[in-house]
Write a structure and sequence with these properties.
Strand order of the largest sheet: 2-1-5
Radius of gyration: 16 Å
Oligomer: single chain
Distance between the termini: 63 Å
Length: 118
């Protein structure tokens, strides 16, 4: 039997059981969590960023040379590329809100507030 890890994605709370060494991007697909990528998972587009707490960082592989080049100081803030970070243990990561969705949500909230005052 192959050893497995559980990867949980917040804020959705969805989880997937994956083989040791699977990337977070692979785990997200298995869990039905949408993480955008344009490069096909080769650290080319930087769209697949996720956030990992300091406590959870040990549950992932060390940053790859590509992550060091692409993310720089963001690595120290817990940002990882889901296409590069591989599981070493059960881990919980946070998927940031898509920027377009965030802008639309903000605009809708502003419109609702304007409607309320009208």
């Amino acid at each position: 039997m192959t050893a497995r890890h559980v990867v949980t994605f917040e804020p959705d709370g969805r989880s997937a059981s994956v083989r040791i060494g699977s990337t977070l991007l692979e785990a997200s697909r298995r869990a039905g969590v949408s993480i955008r990528t344009r490069c096909g998972g080769v650290a080319g587009c930087l769209m697949c960023k996720v956030n990992v707490s300091a406590e959870q960082a040990a549950c992932l592989s060390s940053p790859t040379p590509a992550e060091f080049r692409k993310l720089g100081s963001l690595l120290s803030e817990g940002v990882r590329l889901s296409c590069q970070a591989r599981t070493k243990g059960d881990v919980t990561v946070v998927v940031p809100e898509d920027p377009l969705k965030a802008a639309i949500r903000k605009k809708l909230a502003e419109q609702q507030e304007d409607d309320w005052w009208s």
